[in-house]
Design brief:
Elements: H1 2-24, H2 35-58, E1 62-73, H3 78-81, E2 86-98, E3 104-107, H4 109-112, E4 123-128, E5 135-143, E6 148-153, E7 177-182, E8 190-207, E9 213-221, E10 233-235, E11 241-248, H5 251-254, E12 265-269, H6 270-281, E13 295-297, E14 299-303, E15 306-309, H7 317-322, E16 330-335, H8 340-343, E17 351-355, E18 358-362, E19 366-370, E20 373-374, H9 378-385, E21 393-400, E22 403-410
Antiparallel strand pairs: 1-2, 1-4, 2-3, 3-6, 4-5, 5-6, 7-8, 7-10, 8-9, 9-12, 10-11, 11-12, 13-16, 14-15, 14-18, 16-19, 17-18, 19-20, 19-21, 21-22
């Protein structure tokens, strides 16, 4: 017991000694400018006042979200003794925020997602700051591929709705202030502050049909984000939303523990949500999908999960040489009639060839790039389309008959159906 105490004493003494030595090294008569500490105090005060102003004005627009879902679980030993499955109530929490005076609430899809016919939890309630009672909310629209959802509270007094204005995530700069609001670990209506650490991270955010994330651009911030912050707003110094908090990198999870902040959090850029908002508002409680070109994958391989679409990187180099195919790319299987891909002249398979472990389309185009980004899977193509709107063009680089060419595909209304 004495040894740790001795070590601690040494540390404390050492810190004190270091301070004394540093003080003694200042030449006598050297005075520090009197205005430096005062300027520092003023700068701190200005930032504090800015943060407090943002919180006072817009924290009432923050929403605490609770979900409940009945799930049926079978006792692992029940089948041996004839036990019946039992029904349990699965609960979840998250955050959201008002985006308009109509009471639309933006949040993450994974906050309210559930294994149900609708894709959402059976019971969703919201609670506002300073109020004890919760009110039910219904789903207006879901966008799993973007990890976004739009809710609307029922029977809520319009006077209680405080929308938070949406900013412009395209103008973000590394180093600028970021304020995160949410309910970390269920501690509702919490505020943290940091900076924008990066504006150009690409991480898997949304969910494809297999439950895997789709690579998307994200905002990285060191403002503390923890479980429960999901769906809450990330604000700039003007109080405008620049992102929707969605994920963290957590060494705790990687070590098998509970996820917790490690100074690396991610937010969905608000411009992606802004572009999607009109479609979510018109979804009638249904699912909004990312734009589609109208092509299917032409390389199918067998895996532990069954038959899955794959990119050319899944094949051996010798196989690709034999078939005169590039090293990476998305082989087109079929082109849907009347689709943007069909109108752009993209070609589907003439025939298919089976091989050990799968089959591949022959004679079709191979998409190798979309808007300058490498494509090697359907998810890569989806990633390039996520921020597109009707009328936008996608520049594809395609290999046809061993030659590369550029094809421009215009997204019309059929791409969003």
């Amino acid at each position: 017991m004495k040894r740790p105490l001795f070590a601690t004493t040494l540390v404390l003494v050492g810190l004190g000694l270091g301070a004394t030595l540093l003080r003694d090294q200042v030449p006598p008569g050297t005075a520090q400018p009197a205005d430096v500490p005062q300027a520092e105090r003023a700068a701190r005060l200005e930032n504090e006042q800015n943060t407090m102003s943002i919180v006072r004005r817009y924290e009432p627009g923050l929403v605490f979200i609770s979900t409940e879902q009945q799930v049926v679980r079978q006792d692992p030993m029940g089948w041996m003794f004839g036990g019946d499955p039992e029904t349990q109530v699965q609960q979840g929490i998250g955050s959201g925020f008002f985006v308009n005076k109509a009471g639309d609430i933006l949040t993450n899809y994974h906050v309210i997602a559930a294994q149900s016919p609708t894709g959402a939890a059976e019971r969703i309630t919201i609670r506002l700051m300073g109020r004890e009672e919760s009110v039910p909310a219904r789903v207006i629209g879901l966008a799993p591929q973007y990890d976004l959802a739009l809710l609307r509270a029922e029977k809520l007094d319009p006077k209680l709705i405080t929308p938070i204005p949406l900013g412009n995530s395209d103008t973000l700069a590394v180093g600028q202030k970021a304020v995160a609001m949410g309910a970390p670990f269920g501690l509702d209506f919490s505020v943290t502050e940091g900076i924008v650490s990066s504006t150009a991270r690409t991480i898997p955010i949304g969910f494809n049909g297999a439950g895997e994330g789709i690579m998307q651009r994200a905002i990285q911030t060191d403002a503390a984000i923890n479980p429960g912050n999901s769906g809450g707003p990330l604000l700039d110094s003007s109080g405008k939303v620049i992102g929707i908090n969605t994920q963290i990198i957590s060494p705790g999870v990687q070590a098998g523990g509970v996820g917790q902040n490690a100074g690396v959090g991610f937010a969905i850029p608000v411009n992606a949500a802004r572009n999607l908002l009109p479609r979510l508002q018109q979804a009638g409680g249904g699912v909004v999908s990312a734009p589609r070109l109208g092509v299917s994958a032409g390389l199918i391989v067998q895996s532990a999960q069954g038959a899955v679409a794959a990119g050319l990187s899944a094949l051996s180099s010798s196989a690709k040489q034999d078939l005169d195919l590039p090293e990476t790319g998305l082989v087109i299987g079929e082109v849907a009639p009347g689709s943007p891909a069909a109108r752009a002249g993209l070609r589907g398979a003439r025939q298919t060839q089976a091989f050990r472990g799968g089959e591949i389309a022959l004679g079709s185009d191979v998409i190798v790039q979309a808007d300058g980004k490498v494509v090697d899977a359907l998810e890569d193509l989806q990633s390039a389309l996520l921020d597109k709107q009707e009328g936008d063009q996608v520049k594809l680089q395609v290999v046809r008959g061993g030659e590369r060419r550029e094809v421009k595909v215009t997204l019309d209304a059929s791409a969003f159906e």
